[in-house]
């Protein structure tokens, strides 16, 4: 079975060739320029001004940071005026386009939406434009990040943000020092911990008389995925072109047997009714749950909670170190009014200076590794103390396949995952795995799936 590292490095030859073309591959390791810089050659007439639109998504604070950064480009480049178009969610731009609105000249896109944009001819590959501007990635962008936004042997968008899943824990409820004094097995540091140590922490945080639980995760594909991969399983039957989920595979079944002993324990985790009432994040903020999973984007909200002491740990290792997460990139519209000026802005927006400006708000984890290692991102005077965990988790990310059906897939498997988490007293895990795979196949491979009475999955909501 492939490890997370093997999955993440799949197709490395293609990306290495692409990165080589972008940086001219001089062979001189000391000659790499650490930060992309805009071309010094003017791409429009000195008197010609270009109106650029810049599409972004995120919290109000993030949008304000993007706007300030775009305004700085207005200042340093008198050839362009940049107008920011903003949405709260990653799919806001897609829905806007589906309603007939224009595509911004440069826009931020989640990788989970990339396939839709590419297949609808809405993006212009950026590799040639970057090559023309002498962009040298050096060690600033990982090959995995470049691969994530590569399609048809072209770099479709510039990597911008990464968001690996990690474990957030309440330091008052999961007190490793107190646990060690009492003889419990605790992690040696914040770089790695075992599944048994994770379970021990959940038991330590759960206090029935205080009505607290040890851990809570969402009963979704995204909630389960980091633990399944850590346990040596797979979510999909193929990492590149899946035709089915892989919940009936032996490795995934073994991983599920391990993790469900914790996530099905009503003494240690939230009930279905509690999850319907509030999200794991909300219970965590109230001090009622010791551990949840999440990304760097949650940090500003948690910092604003009075008296909440929290820190982060990686996803626990079961068979190996692994996690999942989101990746975002900057794309250029196929119909950009001035592709050259749009490319200049994209290069500027990806520069260390511009990314640092956005990162200081605390939400964005940058794909620019130079910024990720800086105090602008680590913010050593702020919570969480061990922010380096976010950076180390990037190398453990399993890159999911490019899909255009994430929401449909989550909706189809939701009732089966709810049964997996909450049905009592027992569950038939092999049967559930087969049912989950069966309902996924018409979504992932509709052209090859012919449902029959023998293969159609039953609806668990209709079971006695």
The helix tally amounts to 21
Number of strands: 12
State the helicity in percent bands: 40-55%
Largest sheet: 6 strands, mixed
What is the overall pLDDT average?
Answer: 87
CATH H level of the domain at 4-163 and 326-394: which superfamily? Periplasmic binding protein-like II
Radius of gyration: 23 Å
Can you walk me through this structure?
This protein is α/β, with parallel strands linked by helices. It has a domain at 4-163 and 326-394: D-Maltodextrin-Binding Protein, domain 2 (3-Layer(aba) Sandwich), CATH 3.40.190. It contains 21 helices and 12 strands. It has helices at 4-8, 12-23, 60-76, 92-98, 111-119, 127-132, 143-148, 176-181, 195-205, 221-230, 250-263, 272-277, 280-285, 299-303, 339-349, 352-359, 369-372, 375-378, 388-394, 406-422, 429-444, and strands at residues 50-57, 80-87, 106-110, 123-124, 150-151, 154-155, 158-164, 166-170, 213-216, 289-294, 310-313, 325-333. The strands form 3 sheets. Strands 1, 2, 3, 4, 7 and 12 form a 6-stranded mixed sheet that branches. A 4-stranded mixed sheet has the order 9-10-8-11. Helix 3 packs antiparallel against helix 16 (352-359) and helix 10 (221-230) packs across helix 11. Mean pLDDT is 87; it is low at 1-45 and 452-458.
List the helices and strands and how they pair.
Blueprint: H1 4-8, H2 12-23, E1 50-57, H3 60-76, E2 80-87, H4 92-98, E3 106-110, H5 111-119, E4 123-124, H6 127-132, H7 143-148, E5 150-151, E6 154-155, E7 158-164, E8 166-170, H8 176-181, H9 195-205, E9 213-216, H10 221-230, H11 250-263, H12 272-277, H13 280-285, E10 289-294, H14 299-303, E11 310-313, E12 325-333, H15 339-349, H16 352-359, H17 369-372, H18 375-378, H19 388-394, H20 406-422, H21 429-444
Parallel strand pairs: 1-2, 1-3, 9-10
Antiparallel strand pairs: 3-12, 4-12, 5-6, 7-12, 8-10, 8-11
């Amino acid at each position: 079975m492939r490890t997370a590292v093997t999955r993440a490095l799949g197709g490395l030859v293609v990306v290495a060739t692409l990165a080589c073309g972008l940086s001219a591959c001089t062979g001189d390791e000391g000659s790499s320029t650490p930060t992309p810089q805009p071309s010094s050659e003017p791409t429009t007439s000195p008197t010609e001004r270009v109106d650029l639109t810049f599409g972004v998504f995120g919290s109000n604070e993030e949008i304000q940071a993007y706007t300030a950064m775009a305004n700085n480009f207005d200042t340093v480049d008198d050839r362009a005026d940049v107008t920011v178009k903003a949405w709260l969610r990653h799919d806001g731009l897609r829905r806007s386009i589906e309603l007939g609105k224009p595509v911004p000249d440069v826009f931020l896109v989640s990788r989970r939406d990339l396939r839709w944009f590419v297949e609808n001819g809405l993006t212009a590959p950026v590799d040639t434009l970057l090559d023309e501007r002498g962009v040298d990635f050096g060690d600033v962008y990982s090959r995995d990040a470049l691969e994530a936004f590569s399609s048809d042997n072209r770099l479709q968008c510039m990597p911008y943000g990464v968001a690996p899943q990690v474990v957030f824990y309440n330091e008052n409820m999961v007190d490793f020092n107190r646990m060690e004094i009492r003889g419990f097995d605790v992690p040696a540091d914040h770089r790695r911990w075992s599944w048994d140590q994770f379970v021990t922490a959940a038991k330590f945080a759960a206090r029935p008389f205080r009505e607290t639980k040890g851990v809570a995760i969402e009963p979704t594909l995204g909630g389960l995925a980091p633990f399944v991969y850590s346990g040596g399983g797979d979510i999909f039957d193929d990492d590149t072109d899946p035709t089915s989920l892989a919940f009936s595979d032996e490795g995934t079944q073994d991983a599920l047997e391990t993790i469900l002993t914790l996530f099905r324990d009503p003494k240690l985790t939230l009930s279905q009714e509690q999850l319907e009432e509030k999200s794991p994040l909300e219970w965590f903020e109230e001090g009622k749950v010791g551990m949840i999973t999440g990304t760097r984007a949650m940090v500003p909200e948690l910092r604003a909670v009075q008296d909440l002491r929290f820190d982060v740990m990686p996803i626990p290792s079961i068979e190996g170190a692994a996690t999942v997460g989101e990746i975002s990139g900057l794309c250029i519209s196929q119909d950009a009014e001035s592709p050259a000026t749009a490319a200049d802005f994209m290069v500027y927006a990806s520069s260390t200076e511009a990314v640092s400006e956005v990162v200081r708000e605390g939400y964005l984890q940058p794909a620019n590794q130079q910024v990720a290692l800086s105090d602008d991102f680590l913010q050593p005077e702020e919570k969480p103390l061990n922010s380096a965990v976010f950076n180390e988790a990037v190398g453990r990310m399993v890159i999911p396949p490019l899909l255009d059906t994430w929401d449909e897939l989550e909706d189809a498997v939701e009732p089966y995952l709810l049964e997996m988490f909450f049905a009592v007293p027992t569950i038939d895990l092999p049967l559930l795995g087969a049912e989950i795979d069966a309902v996924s196949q018409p979504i992932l491979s509709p052209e090859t799936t012919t449902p029959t009475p023998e293969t159609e999955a039953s609806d668990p909501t209709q079971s006695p």
